[in-house]
Amino acid sequence: MYGFIWRILPGGRVAKTVQALILIAAVVALLWYVVFPWLEPRLPFNDVTVG
Amino acid sequence: MLITIGLVLILFIAYELWGTGEYTRNAQRDLDRDLKHAWSAPADHIKLADGKGFAVLRIPRFGAKYRFVILQGTSEPILRRGPGHYKGTALPGRRGNFVVSGHRTTYEAPFNKAGELRAGDDIIVDTRYREYVYKVTEKRVVAPTDIAVTYPVPFHRTARPKHALITLTTCHPMYSASHRLIIFGRLAERRVRPGSVGKG
Q: How many other C-beta atoms can be found within 10 angstroms of the C-beta atom of residue A29?
């Protein structure tokens, strides 16, 4: 998967590295700000039973 | 692919520990603003609505900056935004038991350090006109099903309350929900809240 992405990114090694970092940042941001906040309340890790 | 799954899981754990706090900080900022606005004009009675802030909790042992708006109710969405008042229990400063629940870990963990409280420590609750100073009396670990800690006189189901008490409840041990850590306190002093507007 990563090899495939690396091959289709245009430019030289430096350009590929920069693009790869941007892609990683985008994925992390999507997970952190959209996916995880949606997912977290649906998981049982924080179940609080009061009383 | 397995490496990717591993990295995403690690990121999710990081989110649980630190990202959820940001959610609570934002919620608390909004609640604090709403409460200050509501308190800037006099009113006759405390209005309680589910998920709305109505008091402020301060615990000097946790630092001068320690300050959480207490919300009405203890549902999960409410506790994600801050400590919650167990509905049906006494109001701050009133005779009976003012019961407040909060996260021990994640979501800014208002009661993270509850285990460090010592007998005699101040727990301060600000309301529109008053500042109630409770002193910690006792710490206990109970089963999650032990609702006797929320009785007007804890552990005495039918006793009529003579004192104004506060009870903080949170998860125990940390990162687990197998038990509850309970902090009991008793009202020691009531003062006019500095800056309060109106008669009180």
A: 10
